[in-house]
Design goal:
The structure is a single chain. The protein folds into four domains: 174 residues, no CATH class; 75 residues, Orthogonal Bundle (Muramoyl-pentapeptide Carboxypeptidase, domain 1), CATH 1.10.101.10; 209 residues, L,D-transpeptidase catalytic domain-like (Beta Barrel); 39 residues, no CATH class. It is an alpha+beta fold. α2 packs parallel to α7 and α3 runs parallel beside α9. It is 45% helix and 13% strand.
Length: 651
């Protein structure tokens, strides 16, 4: 205490003593002492609360944040240890121990949002959702939200000062891997906190940061679950063949194949590092049909959601055509209108607008385009909107395993179901031809000792290497035995009449071929893409068959409508030949093999729904019942079996 302050207090006490001795007491003894007013008594203010300085709070947050990397590694290790499949790919995706889909503040990244959107769209692509465990992903993302709610609650319980909660949340974000440092806490109101607020912050900070660690762990669980689904997505879109008639593989085999192809999968993800949604989207087939079919699915799904259309009533006769009338025609109008065909809604007369709409419907559904409504057309009209959606989704599924799914450059695509071949250049259609494909009958190959659907056109790819003008036809031993032999037995002049030649070879075997000419079964041109099935494209003298809507009549080869036009185009493109030169070679009837300088791929697939360039959806016939086999769970299709001749014992 200072000297000056001490003398002042002494003076105060001396004056007080003198006043007490010298002043006469005039107050009666019986008079009570005067009461001192309560408000006159001043209580001393409470001592100020001193909380920890902001630097100490920052140090505590920094200590928690410093352990982030170790915690993340431990959490990730535990999660990946539980993964039963796709382990190598997931480990590669997380080799840097960084979240793939969440930001430090706990929100989904742009790629994470896009990933969840793609997963939500699986059904649109016709993909089975069950293996993706989407419910687990939903639960994991919900857990992230719940953990954040708990973190905010802990921050709100620090006291009445909102600034303390803001600083606590900033410290929590730092703990989760967000921006850190004392300056960050200052900017979050840390520089304005009272001592009491700092004390409350110091007392409750550990609870907030404990909650932030739980948030981070929940983010990891959701993040890994999303990445596992992304890997599954890429596998399904690039490796699965759930609808392929012959190459169907079980889910278990698919997993084994995926493990064997881990490096290829990793390469796909590395092409879009940090953006798994881009890797997923890049797994879609690049052929333009795929995106067109997606739009068709959307259109027919909207029709189905609106109730689709009603089944037609009984016709009461074999067929109704233009000029007919009755309640059936009114129902027919409503049915066609429901699918978007343009015609007046009212009227019981089968007039010109109805006729045109029916012809268009028949064109889109591979029916005879006569404008009349009979059994076949009614059956197609009675296919529900829901069934059409399933057919379109099956087409998408088939495209994901199609040989032409990612075709590039110049190529030809044969769709057996559509009985058409299209030529593309950089995925732009430049030509289209109707074709005849293999028969669906049961048959026997005695030479190979097999029986069954042996005439179906096979699904494969090969390179077109040569074009033969005025070709000879060399029938197979089976054709010679089953067709030419009996014909020759009935008519000894059959070979001569139809231009066949039989030559004896040096080894004693017989070689039979048919000379070039009008009756030659290969017509005037043959397009060869060597393959183990001995299938090629060729002309045919039976051109009347191309007028039919459905054309499955060959022994497996692909017969072309207007093949000379295709030869003109290809030989001009490849060698610069003019039509006149090609016609002269054909006219000579001497086989001319022209090797192509620019080989190109020919892909043969089976897809029963397509979309034209103008957006028109077409539904094709399931001529080989491959669609039926898919929908009834009978894949893969067993088309042939060993043939055993009947016993001859006892003869």
């Amino acid at each position: 205490m200072s000297r000056r302050l001490a003398s002042g207090w002494t003076l105060f006490f001396m004056v007080a003593s003198l006043s007490a001795c010298d002043t006469e007491d005039k107050t009666p003894a019986t008079q009570p002492a005067a009461e001192v007013p309560v408000e006159a008594v001043k209580k001393p203010p409470p001592p100020p609360v001193k909380g920890p300085p902001l630097s100490a709070i920052a140090a505590r947050a920094a200590k928690r944040a410093a352990g982030l990397k170790a915690r993340d590694k431990a959490t990730l290790k535990g999660l990946l240890k539980k993964v039963r499949h796709d382990g190598p790919v997931l480990k590669h995706l997380y080799k840097s121990s960084k979240l793939q889909h969440y930001t430090a503040d706990g929100t989904l990244s742009e790629s994470g949002d896009a990933l969840l959107a793609l997963l939500a769209d699986l059904e649109r692509h016709g993909v089975d959702r069950r293996p993706y465990r989407l419910a687990d992903i939903d639960a994991a993302t919900a857990a992230v939200v719940a953990a954040f709610r708990a973190e905010r609650t802990a921050a709100a319980n620090l006291g009445s000062d909102v600034g303390a909660a803001k600083v606590a949340m900033a410290a929590a974000a730092w703990t989760r891997g967000g921006p850190g440092g004392e300056i960050v806490l200052v900017k979050a109101s840390g520089g304005k906190l009272s001592g009491a607020a700092r004390k409350g912050l110091g007392d409750g900070l550990d609870k907030v940061m404990d909650a932030s660690i739980k948030v981070r762990q929940a983010m990891w669980r959701a993040d890994v679950a999303m990445s596992a689904a992304a890997v599954r997505y890429v596998i399904d879109f690039t490796m699965a063949k759930p609808a392929h008639p012959h190459e169907y593989i079980s889910p278990g085999t698919l997993r084994k194949n995926a493990d064997a192809e881990a490096e290829a999968l990793i390469a796909r993800f590395d092409a879009h590092k940090g953006a798994q949604a881009k890797t997923m989207k890049a797994a879609w087939p690049t052929h333009p049909q795929y995106k067109r079919l997606l739009k068709a699915v959307d259109a027919y799904k909207r029709l189905a959601d609106k109730g689709g259309w009603e089944l037609l009533p009984p016709l009461g006769r074999k067929k109704i055509e233009k000029g007919g009338k009755g309640p059936f025609v009114l129902a027919l109008r409503k049915r066609l209108l429901a699918e978007g065909y343009e015609l007046p809604a009212d009227g019981e007369r089968f007039d010109k607008p109805v006729h045109h709409a029916v012809v268009e419907f028949q064109r889109r559904h591979q029916l005879k385009e006569d404008g009349g409504v009979g059994k076949g057309t009614i059956a197609a009209l009675d296919v529900t909107a829901e069934q059409r959606v399933r057919q379109l989704k099956l087409a998408l599924t088939r495209w994901r395993s199609a040989l032409a799914r990612d075709a590039e450059g110049f190529y030809a695509h044969v769709n057996v179901a559509a009985q058409r071949v299209k030529l593309y250049d950089k995925n732009k259609r430049i030509r289209e031809h109707r074709v005849i494909v293999g028969k669906d009958n049961d048959d026997i190959d005695y030479d190979k000792r097999i029986k069954g659907k042996i005439n179906r056109t096979k699904l494969f790819s090969a390179k077109m290497k040569r074009i033969t003008l005025a070709p000879r036809w060399y029938p197979t031993p089976r054709v010679i035995d089953l067709e030419l032999g009996p014909a020759l037995a009935k008519d000894p002049d059959y070979f001569e009449k139809h231009g066949y030649v039989s030559e004896m070879q040096a080894d004693g075997s017989e070689k039979v071929y048919q000379r070039a000419g009008k009756s030659n079964l290969l017509g005037v041109v043959k397009f060869q893409f060597p393959n183990k099935h001995a299938i090629y494209m060729h002309d045919t003298p039976g051109r009347a068959l191309f007028k039919r809507a459905r054309r499955a009549y060959s022994h497996g080869c692909v017969r072309l409508h207007k093949p000379k036009q295709l030869a003109y185009y290809l030989l001009k493109r490849d060698r610069g030949w003019k039509r006149k030169k090609i016609d002269e070679i054909i006219k000579k009837r001497e086989e001319k093999i022209v090797g192509l300088r620019k080989h190109f791929w020919v892909y043969i697939d089976y897809i029963s729904a397509t979309v034209d360039d103008d957006g028109t959806t077409r539904f094709w016939s399931d001529i080989y019942a491959y669609d039926l086999a898919y929908f009834t769970g009978q894949l893969p299709v067993q088309e042939t079996e060993e043939y055993k001749a009947a016993s001859t014992r006892g003869l």
